[in-house]
């Protein structure tokens, strides 16, 4: 019997390398639950192209129910060649973007923190990697990802035209700005808001609204503004200057991949996608590595599980209210890397271990830290 006060977690491996990295994240979750005697219910559910083969749905109803009942979702990855055969309406209604929208997951937190053990794996010089510790807060439900009208049309003269709409309302901007300011208060107290107000009206609104939330509610936090193109350059020139970056959906997507290189690999990056707080203080939350499904290496044991394991650490911090356990998971990763364990993406062509072996090393380091 699951105890009544058990925290429930939906485990959604998904496509490509999703299942194999999520299996390692799951082990870490189960290990902490066991060592700390935390009642926890882990619900493994189908999502993606396998679910489509089995149920004719990417997101079966049972999965949707489990995800909405859960205190948190651990997600693997989505997408890949099998998606080409899935009808567009199903893809549209049941994609990860639809999940983000349906659960109102508006704030996407992507921490980027360097570790000396991996400086060699980064394309950047050691001297710029020291002290890099930032979080990119990406607005997840607005901008071109969801804007209407959108589509590909044929003009009267036969020319084809692709259309997307970049639009933001003040309230969309204000709520993600608050998420960024709140986060900054728990860190070094600095927010850099990134937009392109020199060309885009929605960017001008972005800057004005972030500034107004700041002035009215967060005067204790230091706010600066930066143009998105300059930010891309600053992320490789001097990434240590940033504490919290807050930006729109598309800029956040691009800038977070760019920033990832400081850590040595996109495989290292975790994320949390958070909804608004409900009256019960509960909030919908989905944790996933940033790397995506990587179908070319799926099933080969080559994937780096660190992004998934660090996503579990974020879950302990943001959904389970156990920041000390989150710290220990991060320590265990750092200890594993210091001991020399490397998956292929961070091995610089040298000796590397499999996804599962990497999980073994982290489990063993964490076991000593938890006892
Ligand atoms: C990400 C991914 C997704 C995005 C894709 C898979 C739709 O790149 O989470 O960064 O663009 O949001
Ligand atoms: Mg991306």
Give a description of the structure.
There is one protein chain. By secondary structure, the chain is of the alpha/beta class. It folds into 2 domains: 1-106 and 267-371, Isopropylmalate Dehydrogenase, CATH 3.40.718.10; 123-262, Isopropylmalate Dehydrogenase, CATH 3.40.718. The protein has 13 helices and 12 strands. The strands form 2 sheets. Strands 2-1-3-12-11-4-5-10-8-9 form a 10-stranded mixed β-sheet, with helices on both faces. α8 links the parallel β8 (190-195) and β9. α1 (18-35) packs across α11 and α1 packs parallel to α13 (355-370). The protein is globular. The model has no long low-confidence stretch (mean pLDDT 96). The structure holds 3-isopropylmalic acid and magnesium ion (MG). The site of 3-isopropylmalic acid has 5 residues, from loops.
């Amino acid at each position: 019997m699951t105890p009544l006060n058990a925290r429930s977690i939906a485990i959604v491996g998904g496509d490509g390398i999703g299942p194999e990295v999520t299996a390692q994240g799951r082990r870490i979750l189960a290990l902490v639950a066991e060592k700390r005697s935390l009642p926890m219910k882990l619900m493994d559910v189908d999502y993606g192209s396998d679910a489509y083969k089995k149920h004719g749905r990417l997101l079966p109803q049972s999965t949707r129910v489990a995800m909405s009942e859960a205190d948190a979702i651990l997600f693997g990855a989505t997408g890949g060649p099998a998606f080409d055969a899935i009808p567009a309406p199903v893809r549209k209604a049941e994609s990860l973007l639809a999940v983000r929208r349906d659960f109102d997951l508006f704030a996407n937190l992507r921490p980027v923190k360097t570790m000396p053990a991996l400086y060699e794996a980064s394309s950047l010089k050691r001297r710029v990697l020291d002290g890099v510790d930032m979080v990119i807060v990406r607005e997840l439900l607005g901008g071109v990802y969801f804007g209407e009208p959108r589509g590909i049309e044929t003009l009267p003269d036969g020319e084809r035209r692709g259309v997307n709409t970049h639009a933001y309302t003040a309230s969309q901007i204000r709520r993600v700005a608050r998420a960024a300011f709140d986060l900054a208060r728990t860190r070094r107290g600095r927010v850099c808001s990134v937009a392109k107000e020199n060309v885009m009206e929605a960017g001008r609104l972005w800057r004005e609204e972030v500034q107004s939330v700041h002035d009215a509610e967060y005067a204790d936090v230091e706010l600066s503004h930066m143009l998105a193109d300059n930010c891309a350059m600053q992320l490789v020139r001097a990434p240590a200057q940033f504490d919290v970056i807050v930006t729109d959906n598309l800029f956040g997507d691009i800038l977070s991949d760019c920033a990832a290189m400081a850590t040595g690999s996109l495989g290292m990056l975790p994320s949390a996608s958070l909804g608004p707080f409900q009256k019960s203080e509960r909030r919908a939350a989905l944790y996933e590595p940033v790397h995506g499904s990587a179908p070319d290496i799926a099933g080969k044991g080559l994937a780096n599980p660190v992004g998934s394991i660090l996503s579990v650490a974020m879950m302990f911090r943001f959904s389970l209210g156990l920041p000390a356990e989150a710290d220990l998971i991060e320590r265990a990763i750092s200890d594993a890397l210091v001991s020399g364990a490397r998956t292929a993406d961070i091995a610089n062509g040298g000796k590397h271990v499999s996804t599962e072996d990497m999980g073994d090393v982290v489990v063993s380091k964490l076991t000593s830290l938890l006892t």
